[in-house]
Amino acid sequence: MWKIVADAVPQMAAAGIKYTIPIALVSFAIGLIIALITALTRISVRKGFWITFAKGFASFYVWLFRSTPLLVQLFIVFFGLPSLIIPGIFPHGIKLDPVIAGIITFSLNTGAYCAETIRAALLSIDHGQWEAAYSVGLPRRLVLREIIIPQALRTAVPPLSNSFISLVKDTSLAASITIVEMFQVSQQIAAENYQPLLMYSLVALLYAVVCTVLTWGQRYLEKVTSRYTSNVQTTQL
């Protein structure tokens, strides 16, 4: 048994370094950008047709990706889009590399969930701070960048960190679209040595180790942002 473990663990770890972690990092980074844009769009107080349209589209996007399973979204992007034929643009359908399809899907899914987290964090800041900043002539862009977002960060860090940890675990679904990440490797090895319980337990342990390290990182970030918030409050007093 120990020989099987010694042979399997390096292969799973290599797959994690090559695919699991990079896919999670890239998807989360893109997802955060999408989430910030979506959240700012939804809390915009500007008027006009295009602003209203953008707010409606942002709300629809969040609803769509939060209301459908991630596995189904992966299948639509990877297996479904190739059948979407658009004459003159995509005459043979939209065919994506498995990794690209995975990153796109994970990014959009993460963006939808993180958008609600960021929106709630921004709205949690007392409205009086907006009014005080506007009263001294600061534009909305500076108010967000210098006053609101730094304070909202403290509220958003824990749920955003949880979203990233969940994303790392969700990358196991990428095996369903032929990406050879950790879970896919464990399946392949189990098919060779006929030890599914051992292989799946090993890959679960590897995910647990990675998520534990990320949890330690989350606690450190919370301490850092707490010190920042404390300094801001002390300065205000």
UniProtKB/TrEMBL annotation:
It is found in: Cell membrane. Keywords: Amino-acid transport, Cell membrane, Membrane, Transmembrane, Transmembrane helix, Transport. GO terms for biological process: amino acid transport. Pfam families: BPD_transp_1. PROSITE patterns: ABC_TM1 (PS50928). GO terms for cellular component: ATP-binding cassette (ABC) transporter complex. One of its GO terms (molecular function) is transmembrane transporter activity. Residues 17-215 form the ABC transmembrane type-1 domain. This is Amino acid ABC transporter permease.
